[in-house]
Amino acid sequence: MARKKIIAGNWKMNMTPSQAVALVKELEPLVKNDAVDVVYCVPAVDIVPVVEAVKGSNVQVGAENMYFEDKGAYTGETSAEMLVDAGVKYVIIGHSERRDYFKEDDELLNKKVKKAFEAGLTPILCCGESLEQREMGVTMDWIRLQIKSDLKDITADQVKELVIAYEPIWAIGTGKTATTEQAEEVCKGIRDCIAEIYDAATADAVRIQYGGSVNAGNASELFAQPDIDGGLVGGASLKADFGNIVNY
Question: Which of these, 146, 214, 171, 148, lies nearest to 10 by C-alpha position?
Fold first, then answer.
């Protein structure tokens, strides 16, 4: 069975609640496409108004982060239960900006993946290498380590529901994009890694996105690759152009 493409926008720290609702209304007619899953991953303060604004449309809402504890003295954090109750379906885990700026390591991210599944959320698990790592020739070694660490004790059935986003760090927000061949090579390597840890059926089921300066001009070529099942889109998800990516 062919994997359904998933196009997710990562809004990052952009859009006030009122701006978010306006953007959702602008995008609504542009992203109508039942052939793909469309997700807006929005800042925590935007979740409730955006969930309300997408009602009746084909769009699902995701969060950009969450904590692994259920509740307690964790000032500034958001729990999985809070996200579910607010209407969230997906959550980004391990984005390179979280790993870099906020020093989130694989042990922490593994706890978050487990908690997301426990709560009924679908994780969008990010992985990727720096320019230095690519130039050293250790791209797949690094990404395999991330995948194996982040999925420790995660079952095959859970992984089949997972979304993995490959984002070369050197291509995020830089205007540089991995070549189609580079993107496909790593996404295939991730699928091979999943087959190694679990089995071929699990590897065939998991959806793997490419992220890193995806735009309307390169989306169709990237998404045509056999191991690329859509995109995690940054800046281009904040404008009407996102509709062209969804309808690649």
Answer: 214
132-146 burial: b if 16+ Cβ within 10 Å, else e: ebbeeeebbebbbeb
The residues assigned a catalytic role are: 95, 167
**d(Cα 165, Cα 120) in Å, to the nearest integer?**
19
The two structure tokens encoding residue 73: 């003295």
Tokens 């409730």 found at = 48
**Side chain identity, residue 164:** I
Angle ∠(148,149,150) on CA atoms, nearest 5: 95
Orientation of helix 106-119 relative to helix 139-150, angle to 10° = 50
What's the alpha-carbon Rg for the chain, to the nearest Å?
17
Report the pLDDT averaged over residues 182-188: 97
The residues spanned by each domain of the chain are 6-246
Query: Residues 134, 173: contact at Cβ < 8 Å?
Result: no
CATH pick for 6-246 out of 3.20.20.70, 3.30.1540.20, 3.30.70.3270, 1.10.3720.10:
3.20.20.70
Residues 6+ apart with CB under 8 A from 239: none
Share of the chain above pLDDT 70, in %: 100
User: Can you tell me whether residue 20 is helix, strand or coil?
Assistant: helix
What's this model's pTM, rounded to 2 decimal places? 0.97
